[in-house]
């Protein structure tokens, strides 16, 4: 059975602890995982009891503009990789330093002013109260959004595609 990167790291770490050694243990010819310490929050995972490996998506230019964030979503149009991970998707799209435990926590946070009316500007975080964790996507500036869970995948839809609209906050890479 092939171990995941995280699984291999756990095996190597356990071998070091039980061997009482700080020298490297080579389990295979495969390279060691690069990042084992990515912060994982409830918004990052559909099943809070699941373990995820290191964040992928490090091969994109810093998407610190509305166009960059929208392009991140466009490049993943049709992907199911972020189902249940909406807050993680918008965080990665904007290359944000700030992490929130869920979309609803992001909405309720002091991280930006909440707006309840008007068309959200391009790249704005758009929020819905569709579960205990909420849902978030990015505005296209014309009444549409890029989000996870559009017909079960990343896609583009009208803002009213999801029910229980809460409002929007300006997009940023804070």
In short:
The protein is of the alpha+beta class. The protein is 23% helix and 16% strand.
For this entry, what is the oligomeric state of its chains? single chain
* Order of strands across the main sheet: 4-3-2-1-5
Class computed from helices, strands and strand pairing: alpha+beta
**What is the percentage of strand-forming residues?**
15-25%
Uncertain runs are 9-28, 30-55, 57-63
Instruction: Give the overall shape, derived from the CA principal axes.
Output: globular
Average pLDDT rating: 77
* Helix proportion range: 10-25%
Please report the distance between the alpha carbons of the first and last residues.
41 Å
Largest sheet: 5 strands, antiparallel
Number of helices: 4
Work out the radius of gyration. 19 Å
- Beta strand count: 5
Helix-strand topology string: HHHHEEEEE
List the helices and strands and how they pair.
Layout: H1 5-19, H2 66-75, H3 86-94, H4 103-108, E1 125-128, E2 135-139, E3 144-150, E4 153-158, E5 165-169
Antiparallel strand pairs: 1-2, 1-5, 2-3, 3-4
Helix pairs in contact: 2-3
Model description:
The protein contains 4 helices and 5 strands. With 174 residues, the chain is an alpha+beta fold. Mean pLDDT is 77; it is low at 9-28, 30-55 and 57-63. It starts with a helix and ends in a 5-residue tail after the last strand. A 5-stranded antiparallel β-sheet has the order 4-3-2-1-5. Helix 2 packs across helix 3 (86-94). Helices cover 23% and strands 16% of the residues. The relative contact order is 0.16.
